[in-house]
């Protein structure tokens, strides 16, 4: 994973100014007469210093393209702290708390976090509103019903709370600040005795000592639950008879309402900061590898298609100001697009890299992402 922000763009501007100065001095030197000794010597010395600075700066930018490299195990599950100063990163050793400038501040020893294929928020970390506690889904021992837990721990590694879920979990979303938890049992998990868990519909767990409650009773398989930033609603995908659709309902229960349908597949969704819109990446036809970017209003009255057809490398991520969406494609580009008018800008070009899992810090100053080289080597 990498952390990038406005400081990277500032550094690029400094390099540009230095290059312009280098060019001007080089032109002056070329036009100087041979008998101008002292001034020419000073100009040559300044030109040499600028050349060294440019070489060092460019080599640094090439080794770390636009940010600071942060090693991690599964970036899709990383989470920014409320104050935008720390990233909680699942690793092979537990949960690493990484500061932006001081590296690993602490490693919380925990059970392995849930890791299954797909792009749902199956085990995405969540911080408490005061930034003192972390919530996560963990797997203990073999992946059987008794091995799935909803856990929380203080950031100093103490006061571990463990709540057994008793079903294999395919997708889950914590409410902002922690409980309640909405999750989907994994209908694909089977044993010699048949299906391990119930049908893949939405369930809700309100706290460590509560019992799970089923939220929906509909045909098809549910996935990708995602609770809104205000903790009032939840969106999810439903697959039925070869088609995928997006639904919304009140957290805690109620009648689900259709937001968008007739997709062949949905590869990720994201709530807008104001809770009024949902961005999604979807394929409209079977066998079509192009991904379309859509924004749906939570009222169900508008479905806006943005940008051009691309093969996306990451689900869309809203910028905290709510005006722009960011995503990556398989050309190694990080792109932002304005929702109102569709203006499209390339934020970064990382050749030979597959960019995934974009996440903006709450203050909007930094963007975290993970990358994989071609051929894969990390």
Walk me through what this model shows.
By secondary structure, the chain is mainly β. Among the domains are: 62 residues; 194 residues, TolB, C-terminal domain (Neuraminidase, 6 Propeller). Helices cover 14% and strands 43% of the residues. The strands form eight sheets. The protein has a four-stranded antiparallel beta sheet. Strands 3-4-5-6 form a four-stranded antiparallel beta sheet, with no helix packed on it. It has a four-stranded antiparallel beta sheet with strand order 7-8-9-10, with no helix packed on it. Helix 1 packs antiparallel against helix 2. It is globular, with a radius of gyration of 24 Å.
Secondary-structure map:
Layout lengths: L1 E4 H26 L6 H26 L4 E2 L9 E2 L5 E6 L2 E6 L3 E6 L17 E2 L5 E7 L8 E7 L6 E4 L4 E7 L2 E8 L4 E2 L2 E2 L7 E3 L7 E2 L6 E7 L5 E8 L2 E8 L6 E7 L1 E7 L5 E7 L7 E7 L5 E8 L6 E2 L5 E5 L4 E6 L5 E6 L3 E8 L5 E8 L5
Antiparallel strand pairs: 1-2, 1-30, 3-4, 4-5, 5-6, 7-8, 8-9, 9-10, 11-12, 12-15, 13-14, 15-16, 17-18, 18-19, 19-20, 21-22, 22-23, 23-24, 25-26, 26-27, 27-28, 29-30
For the record, what is the CATH homologous superfamily label of the domain at 70-263? TolB, C-terminal domain
Oligomer: single chain
Radius of gyration: 24 Å
CATH topology of the domain at 70-263: Neuraminidase
Structural class category: mainly beta
Outline, from the CA principal axes?
Answer: globular
Helix content: 10-25%
Unreliable residue stretches: 6-12, 55-76, 114-122
Tell me the major beta sheet.
Answer: 4 strands, antiparallel
What is the typical, i.e. mean, pLDDT? 76
Number of helices: 2
- Label the CATH architecture of the domain at 70-263: 6 Propeller
Beta content comes to 35-45%
């Amino acid at each position: 994973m990498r952390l990038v922000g406005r400081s990277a763009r500032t550094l690029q501007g400094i390099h540009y100014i230095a290059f312009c100065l280098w060019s001007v001095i080089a032109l002056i030197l070329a036009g100087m007469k041979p008998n101008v000794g002292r001034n020419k010597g000073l100009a040559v010395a300044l030109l040499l210093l600028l050349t060294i600075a440019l070489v060092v700066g460019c080599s640094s930018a090439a080794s770390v393209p636009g940010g600071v490299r942060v090693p991690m195990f599964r970036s899709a599950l990383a989470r920014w702290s409320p104050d935008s100063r720390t990233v909680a990163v699942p690793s092979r050793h537990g949960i690493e708390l990484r500061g932006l400038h001081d590296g690993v501040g602490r490693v919380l020893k925990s059970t392995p976090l849930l890791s299954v294929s797909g792009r749902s928020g199956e085990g995405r970390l969540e911080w408490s509103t005061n930034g003192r506690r972390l919530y996560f889904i963990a797997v203990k021992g073999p992946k059987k019903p008794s091995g799935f837990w909803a856990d929380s721990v203080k950031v100093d590694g103490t006061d571990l709370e463990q709540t057994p879920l008793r079903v294999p979990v395919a997708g889950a979303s914590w409410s902002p600040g922690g409980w309640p938890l909405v999750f989907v049992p994994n209908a694909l998990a089977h044993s010699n005795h048949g299906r391990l868990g119930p049908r893949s519909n939405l369930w809700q767990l309100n706290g460590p000592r509560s019992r799970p409650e089923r939220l929906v009773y509909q045909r098809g398989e549910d996935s990708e639950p995602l609770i809104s930033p205000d903790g009032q609603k939840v969106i999810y995908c439903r697959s039925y008879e070869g088609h995928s659709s997006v639904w919304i309902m009140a957290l805690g229960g109620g009648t689900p309402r259709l937001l968008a349908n007739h997709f062949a597949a949905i590869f990720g969704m994201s709530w807008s900061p104001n809770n009024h819109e949902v961005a999604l990446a979807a394929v409209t036809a079977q066998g079509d590898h192009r991904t379309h970017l859509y924004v749906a209003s939570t009222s169900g009255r508008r479905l806006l298609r943005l940008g051009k057809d691309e093969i996306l490398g990451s689900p869309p991520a809203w910028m905290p100001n709510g005006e722009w969406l960011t995503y990556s494609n398989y050309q190694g580009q990080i792109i932002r697009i304005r929702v109102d008018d569709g203006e499209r800008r390339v934020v970064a070009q990382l050749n030979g890299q597959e960019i995934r899992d974009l996440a903006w810090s709450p203050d909007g100053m930094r963007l975290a992402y993970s990358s994989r080289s071609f051929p894969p080597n990390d």
